[in-house]
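Chapter summary example.
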Amino acid sequence: MMADGGWLMADGRWQMANGKWLLAVKSLSREVKLLADG
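The structure predicted for these 38 residues follows.
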């Protein structure tokens, strides 16, 4: 039971990190597009 809870916590942390990574990539691609257009 505790091991399962730990896995869920780790999964939540991974999803949060993944979401931050996706946001970083989105903002980065937006900057690149602005540079390419400008």
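To summarize the output: The mean pLDDT is 84.
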